[in-house]
Amino acid sequence: MSFDLTDKLVWVAGQHGMVGRAMMRRLEREPCALLLDPGRTAVDLRRQSEVEDWMAAQRPRIAFLTAGRVGGMYANDAFPADFLYDNLLIEANIIHAAYRTGVEKLLFFGSSCIYPRDAPQPIPEAALLTGPLERTNEAYAVAKIAGIKLCQAYRRQHGCDFISAMPTNLYGPGDNFHPETSHVPAALLRRFHEAKMARAAEVVVWGSGTPRREFLYVDDLADAGIHLLRHYSGESHINIGAGYDVTIAEFAEHIKRCVGFEGRIVYDRSRPDGTPRKLLDSRRIQALGWSATTPLDEGLKRYYDWFLSNQGKLRETVIEAATSK
Ligand code: GFB
User: Fold this and answer.
1) Whose CA is nearest to atom 33 of ligand 1?
2) Cα torsion at 188, 189, 194, 199 (round to 10°)?
3) How many angstroms separate the alpha carbon of residue 43 from the centre of ligand 1?
4) Given strand 246-247, what is the order of strands in its sheet?
5) pLDDT tens digits, residue range 112-162?
6) Most buried of 70, 287, 301, 303 (most Cβ within 10 A)?
């Protein structure tokens, strides 16, 4: 099968986030039309009637659901109400409105944290809901699992061609560089860079350095998203990974080398490690004809070049207590 994008109006929900921006860059090479996000003040994606009215007026034919509240392990742990509430509302509103307005195909992006903390490695899609989740990101994981189940339910009950993809840990242009709420790639890139500029003797890395993570360059993810849209239609979510993992200590060494920092690395063991290992089994997407192409050092080089040329306008998402508003 090959789903055709020609002349179709495509909406990337969340097009100002890292994944949404990468999707927009990738879609510029496709023969489709791109719908610009209405902006948060015009349409709050957590408000059902605002989403329904906007989608009914714009009538996108294809939707990529990248919008959501995201953050690293500290943000997930500190703001579970926001992560659960915002993500549940955003995905339920968009998926339901997509059904009501006859969206032909929708791709929902989840996260590798949907899997049990002690899932077998590499993690197959079938590991979903087979064991307890990692405590620090349980709220976000439950919301993302609900998104998968929404796509499946609308497919079963209404015949909607809604699919979902589970990316591994991501990095790339447009990342959130807030020192506390970011994921490890942005936190370390910034910290090593600032330490180099300040000629500091050491850089602090959270935790023990022993957890293992798989890192995917965000433009590879966007390419996988287009590939799945074209070539996949089914109930199961599909993993998207790079195919190999590294320890956080090894990852810190890669960033240190990329930035050119010459001091020491020290570990702050008062900070949690989170899940011990998260490596996705990406054989299903590989069988569909897609594999990641950006090696880690090449991706990090592009990431750092982007960081250097965007000094002064870096995104630093401060997570505030949205649910108390
Ligand atoms: O990227 P990160 O916050 O996400 O942390 P998770 C990954 C690992 O890096 C953990 C270590 O073992 C951290 O202890 N780490 C070292 C750091 N230094 C730092 C630092 O300065 N900042 C951060 N943030 N980590 C997230 C979930 O889990 O994965 C999300 O919380 C999402 O829900 C995302 O699913 C993909 O991989 O642990």
Assistant:
1) 137
2) 80
3) 30
4) 246-247, 212-213, 277-278
5) 999 999 999 999 999 999 999 999 999 999 999 999 999 999 999 999 999
6) 70
Q: Say how far apart CA 89 and CA 150 lie, in whole Å.
A: 12
How many angstroms does the Cα of residue 72 sit away from the middle of ligand 1? Answer: 5
Catalytic residues: 140
β-bridge mates for residue 268, sequence order: 206
pLDDT digits (tens, 9 = 90+) for 64-111: 999 999 999 999 999 999 999 999 999 999 999 999 999 999 999 999
Predicted model pTM: 0.96
Residue nearest to atom 37 of ligand 1 (CA): 169
Alpha-carbon distance of 325 to 323, in angstroms, equals 5
List b or e across 173-199, with b for residues whose CB sees 16 or more CB atoms inside 10 angstroms: bbbbbbeebbbbbbbbbbbbbebbeee
Distance CA 127, CA 282 (A): 13
CA of 47 to the centre of ligand 1 (A): 30
Query: CA–CA distance from 25 to each of 103, 241, 291 (Å)?
Result: 22, 20, 19
Token pair of 79 as six digits = 């703001």
Using the predicted structure, report yes or no on whether residue 324 has a pLDDT greater than 50: no
* Ligand 1 atom with minimal separation from the 275 CA: 38
